[in-house]
Write a structure and sequence with these properties.
Blueprint lengths: L3 E4 L2 E4 L2 E2 H8 L3 E5 H14 L5 E6 L6 H9 L3 E4 L2 H9 L7 E3 L6 H10 L3 E4 L2 H14 L7 E8 L21 E2 H11 L5 E7 L10 H19 L6 E3 L16 H12 L5 E4 L3 H4 L3 E12 L4 E5 L8 H5 L5 E3 L21 E6 L8 E8 L7 E4 L21 E5 L2 E6 L4 H5 L4
Parallel strand pairs: 4-20, 5-6, 5-13, 6-7, 7-8, 8-9, 9-10, 9-11, 11-12, 12-13, 15-17
Antiparallel strand pairs: 1-2, 2-3, 4-14, 14-15, 14-19, 16-19, 17-18, 20-21
Bound molecules: pyridoxal-5'-phosphate.
């Protein structure tokens, strides 16, 4: 679900004609829909209400402070993966007890800031990291009575159908420890006095399209929790990570309700708090990237549409071969898309490569894509751009990063201005 819809052949973000925003802020620009964020978060909260659930929105998917504030206001905690993301959630005024911190390479400096901030849980990925956390906790914990909570990230060795770069729950990825090892880690450190190992964390990957891996993971983890409890370890929570699907194509992934229907019954009555770390399922559909056609040209055998957004603005197509539906924001009635799909072929459309201005062969947003005819100056929308869009944007080719705009009903607001050339060189001496 999202609130980007065509009305009379013109694309609206909630109640605002996107052309009006482009005219005011220029292109490329990220356009977020506040209502979409709230709707997705609310549906997830509702789906898991039978369990004691904390939703920790994944900051790396979409980290603008204004959006984090919005999420916090609606009851979300946060999943962070760096000191920089900790700083962001602090700036947003988040409830730090609802912050979980994952990542295989936390530095001492980052760990100390998180200890001093009093975050909810450290999601530990190796024994060395746990030893290091324990050492730092003894030196830097805020008060001696507040034990530091930690989760052990367990790698359940589950197949997850996605791009090879996006699977994190297989045995040979760098993430977490395997189930056998997990028992040994608890035996060795489970009763350490400075760190309370009280949670099992799994994060399977991202980009999957079925609930099966989650059900399988819970079924593998519950016996582990039973074993640990029998050995006297007080396991209080299960953190199931993120990776729930987003509608890059119309209705191709399970809804929050469908995931919950598979997961909740397995966890009922188990006396476990549930932590979820959704990123893209909350924010992907909450934004579009607006871009204008600079030129069109005919190559030897292909037609190219050259737009003013490039791989520095949205790297997912180049990096992961990711699909983003792209369409002109104003079209004749017969071209208004009925679904967002890779196979959508409308009578009278052309097959083109949609490419950016960057001097790099990998700079494309779409290849062999069928779209209505467009010409120089036309505005286009790259849909489902809210996750790993702006957060992965760079200044490659010395391109200032695009602004971020938040739409709420008939209002819109610039929540991050367009970068300037001065911004590009500001840190250089
Ligand atoms: C990236 C990440 C997430 C969010 O993944 P999505 O696919 O965006 O839901 C959650 N947890 C951890 C540990 C992550 O690294």
């Amino acid at each position: 679900m999202d609130l980007f819809r065509y009305k009379g052949g013109r694309l609206f973000a909630e109640d605002v004609d996107v052309e009006r925003i482009a005219a005011q802020v220029g292109t490329p620009a990220y356009l977020y829909s506040q209502g979409t964020f709230i709707d997705h978060l609310g549906k997830m909260q509702e789906a898991y209400r039978e369990l004691d659930t904390t939703i920790c929105f994944s900051v790396k998917a979409c980290g603008n402070i204004h959006i984090l504030k919005l999420m916090a206001r609606h009851g979300s905690g946060f999943d962070i993966v760096s000191g920089g993301e900790l700083y962001r959630v602090q700036q947003a005024g988040a409830d730090l007890s609802k912050v979980v911190y994952a990542g295989v390479g936390k530095t001492d400096e980052e760990i100390v800031s998180a200890l001093q901030a009093g975050i909810g849980c450290f999601n530990i990925e190796s024994e060395q990291e746990l030893e290091n956390l324990s050492r730092l906790a003894q030196q830097h914990a805020r008060s001696s009575d507040a034990k530091i909570n930690a989760a052990l990230r367990v790698n359940p060795d589950i197949e997850y159908q996605t791009h090879a770069y996006l699977t994190t729950g297989k045995k040979d990825t760098k993430f977490g420890v395997d189930i056998e090892r997990a028992v040994a880690v608890f035996e060795k450190y489970g009763k350490s006095w400075s760190v309370r190992l009280s949670t099992i964390h799994v994060h399977l990957g991202t980009g999957g399209k079925t609930i099966d891996p989650y059900v399988e993971a819970v079924k593998k983890i519950l016996p582990l929790i039973d074993r640990l409890r029998q050995k006297g370890h007080a396991i209080e929570a299960l953190d199931l990570g993120g990776g729930y699907g987003a509608d890059y194509e119309t209705e191709t992934v399970p809804s929050a309700e469908e995931y919950a229907a598979g997961i909740v019954p397995l966890l009922k009555g188990k006396n476990l708090r549930l932590i979820l770390e959704p990123g893209k399922s909350i924010c992907a559909n909450a934004a579009i990237l607006l871009t204008r056609v600079l030129y069109t040209k005919m190559g030897a055998s292909k037609r190219f549409v050259i737009v003013d957004a490039g791989m520095n603005d949205l790297i997912r197509p180049s990096l992961y071969g990711a699909f983003h539906f792209i369409w002109p924001t104003q079209t004749e009635p017969q071209f208004v898309p009925t679904v967002r799909s890779q196979d959508l072929r409308v009578e009278g459309s052309e097959t083109v490569d949609i490419v950016g201005p960057i001097c790099e062969g990998a700079d494309f947003l779409a290849k062999d894509r069928s779209i209505p005819p467009v010409q120089r100056g036309d505005l286009m929308a790259v849909f489902t751009a809210g996750a790993y869009g702006f957060t992965m944007a760079s200044n490659y080719n010395a391109r200032p990063r695009a602004p971020e705009i938040l739409v709420d009903g008939s209002q819109f607001e610039i929540i991050r201005r367009r970068e300037t050339y001065e911004d590009l060189v500001a840190p250089e001496r």
